[in-house]
Design a protein that fits this description.
Layout lengths: L1 E6 L7 H4 L8 E2 L2 E2 H11 L4 E6 L3 H13 L3 E5 L4 E7 L5 E6 L6 H7 L1 H4 L4 E5 L2 E3 L3 H11 L3 E6 L7 E5 L2 E6 L9 E2 L3 E3 L14 H11 L3 E6 L3 E3 L3 H12 L17 E7 L5
Parallel strand pairs: 1-4, 1-8, 4-7, 10-15
Antiparallel strand pairs: 2-3, 5-6, 6-17, 8-14, 9-16, 10-13, 10-14, 11-12
Helix pairs in contact: 4-7
């Protein structure tokens, strides 16, 4: 099953980080948030990714090219121009990086991916949110409800910590409690191919048009996830996620640290000779 990651937005609310790179390339613990999202899916057995690129998309392409080509060890013979690469295979992934336009809205980006996704169930998530959602359980839920689409409903974390008050005295503080009983779209969506009938052109919003139409037709199920979910909209959000990772308390880290898949292999390559 393919996993679409929407990675083309402008990230205007995180301009401190997104002036020179797209939001999915903003780092948590020294790795792009996009890497964290993909590692989470990989831990649930999904390894086939379609990244919808847009704003500064070339930097995403460069990241994956460099991560593959520059991992491991290089032996360069300057006399012959030969390169022997003992490659450390970094991830067991297949990644397609598709240009979907610099200003295309979310629904339009998915519509542009139709040639790569038609005729099969696929997943979609945003390139700026982390969760510990059980992806396998989500897929089972989707299949059991037999609707065109399923959205993962999450409780949004409050922007600030709360106070516990007894009488006129503050007795304790709470760290970022969930905001009331409401649910919001947390990404981690599952779609059947029929969703393309609901998607419009580049000006089409996944949230404001497509999902609302699906709901009106009774074709949108909600998988309720009450555990960890956090988007990275602001610098405060980034620092919060950084702190969780640094302290070994990142709930989205559902994979084990292990030696690289495939170990080392020697891949001879011939480079162009210098003139």
């Amino acid at each position: 099953m393919k996993v679409v990651i929407l990675a083309g937005g402008l990230g205007t609310r995180l301009q401190e980080e997104t002036v020179a790179r797209p939001k999915p390339m903003v780092e948590i613990g020294g790795m792009p948030i996009l890497w964290h999202i993909m590692k989470h899916f990989q831990s649930h057995g999904l390894r086939d990714f379609v990244v919808a690129c847009g704003y500064l998309g070339d930097s995403i392409k460069s990241y994956f090219l460099d991560r593959y080509n520059l991992s491991g060890h290089l032996a360069i013979d300057f006399a012959t121009g030969e390169i022997a690469r003992a490659q450390e295979v970094p991830e067991d992934w297949k990644v397609q990086l598709i240009d979907t336009g610099p200003t295309t809205l979310t629904g339009g980006r998915i519509k542009r991916l139709e040639p790569w996704l038609a005729n099969e169930t696929f997943m979609v998530t945003y390139g700026d949110g982390l969760s510990d959602v059980d992806v396998r359980a989500l897929l089972r839920f989707h299949r059991s409800h037999q609707r065109i689409a399923t959205v993962t409903a999450v409780r949004p974390p409050a922007r600030f910590g709360g106070l516990v008050i007894e009488g006129d005295a503050v007795t304790s503080f709470t760290e970022k409690p969930s905001a009331g009983e409401g649910w919001i779209n947390g990404g981690y969506l599952v779609f059947e191919p029929a969703v393309f009938d609901y998607l419009g052109g580049d000006e089409s919003s996944l949230e404001a048009s497509t999902l609302e139409r699906l709901a009106a037709d009774g074709q949108l199920a909600a998988y309720q996830h009450g555990d960890f979910w956090q988007c990275m909209d602001t610098l405060r959000d980034k620092h919060y996620l950084e702190g969780l990772w640094r302290n070994g308390q990142a709930p989205w880290k559902t994979w084990e640290t292990a030696s690289p898949v495939g170990g080392l292999k020697v891949v001879p390559q011939v480079a162009h000779r210098a003139a």
